[in-house]
Amino acid sequence: MASDEFFADLELETFTRNESRQEKPQLSTTLRKLYTFCRRQAFSSYVASKRNANIGDSISQPVWYCCDKTFWEPSSVHKHVARTHENEVQQLTEVTFQRLLSQLEDKKCERPLPRDHNQEAVEISSWLPDTSYLTVEELQKGPGKVLLYYRYFRVDDPYTICAWQKALCEKLHLTGKVRVSTEGINGTVGGSVLATDIYIKTMCAHALFNSMEEDDFKSSDGGAECFSDLRVGVYEEIVPMGVHPDVISYQLAGTHLNPEEFHQEVESLQSEGESSQDTVLLDCRNFYESKIGQFSQCLAPNIRKFSYFPEYVDQNLDLFRDKKVLMYCTGGIRCERASAYLLSKEVCKEVYQLKGGIHKYLERFPDGFYRGKLFVFDGRYAISSNADILSECRYCSAPWDQYQLCATRFCCQLVLSCPACRGVGRTACCSACQSKVPPEGEESCAIGPAVLKEKCECTDRRPRIPQDAL
């Protein structure tokens, strides 16, 4: 079951925080299933926390230690926890349940919009390219590329564009993600060089996209293997900032600077050094992106997702008051709405944004002022144009900038763990998750739909909206 379908009908208001078990209101069927999942996960986590790694490692089998007793079999420790630690498990259940409800609130801007079934379907077959002269092998084999692009413009029928994009990508055997909205389109797809070239030509030939040129598509080495599947949907926003496009429009964006112009501005800022007080170089990306690569002397907000950016601006307005702001992101799309939001506060002298984002800047200045890797939202996690390593292994602090997912089943945090540390089992994002990592050869004991994410120490200890200072 898809995550959006699973969460679509949750009645969040039916559960009230801090209510006792006896006073808890009747939950809907879906919420009861979610609560049961949380209880099973809490039970598994509690049992895992009692595993004695030192004893277990020395005898090559798991051992649990609780209440001054040693348990050699899973069934025995399970019975002990069920009989003796009901209150602790219940408290963990409540915390886990509340965390998931909070995540559901965050997911609202990520949920595809339902189609109006009364809307008449449009024939899209004439918009698809003729590939009859090509074999499937010819479309799939050979060197590959990953494309990144967006276009803001008025789309009167996003569902037809969505259907066309899905059919086009399937025909060309492309994988990736495409978001369509009444405000435009945002996509990143991977496939063979031949298939991606046909995709670009087909896009530029369409009446709605004929203002696009080949240069509007950022490309990098990769392929269909960089994505697990193809996801195409209609959303309220083509990049989820959490503010309706009718409230903050891309048409109110800041002034675009091409890579050469942006490079000159940064060069001037760098030459002034500490004496520069009237310019802010603002990274609009998430903390885990700027952690492995950024422009020198930038302000990189410690935010976890772009939908937190408006609140970050609201709580840090003095940082931008009477300043010139130079703004950048991965491919330029986030800056369109971010600059419009910042300008709406009427505190800045000027707001500029890097046209084409870091992608285009690195094409022109591979050894310029951007140092480290460029984070990308696919299986590669990062691409690079220089050898600088800005980040370090979270365990031993050795220079390291290659992300992997946390080894626990339900945590989706990214981890910087060097080969030496991974080799001794340090594969989780924090101590709480590390205690849940199953022994080698065993599957995770967590139960429930794999689409559910859980928070941990990494997210709990980070302020949602940091207070920054220049």
Summary?
33% of the residues lie in helices and 16% in strands.
What does this molecule look like?
By secondary structure, this protein is α/β, with parallel strands linked by helices. The chain contains 16 helices and 16 strands. It has helices spanning 3-7, 29-49, 53-59, 74-84, 86-106, 136-140, 158-171, 193-205, 259-272, 287-290, 309-315, 333-344, 357-364, 419-423, 431-434, 457-460; strands at 64-66, 69-71, 144-152, 175-181, 184-192, 218-221, 230-234, 255-257, 279-283, 293-295, 324-328, 350-354, 370-375, 382-384, 403-405, 414-416. The chain has a 5-stranded mixed sheet. Strands 8-12-11-9 form a 4-stranded parallel sheet. Helix 2 (29-49) packs across helix 5 and helix 9 (259-272) packs across helix 13. The longest helix is centred in the first third of the chain and has 21 residues, at 29-49.
How would you describe this structure in keywords?
470 residues; alpha/beta; Oxidized Rhodanese, domain 1; four-stranded parallel sheet; 16 helices; Rhodanese-like_dom
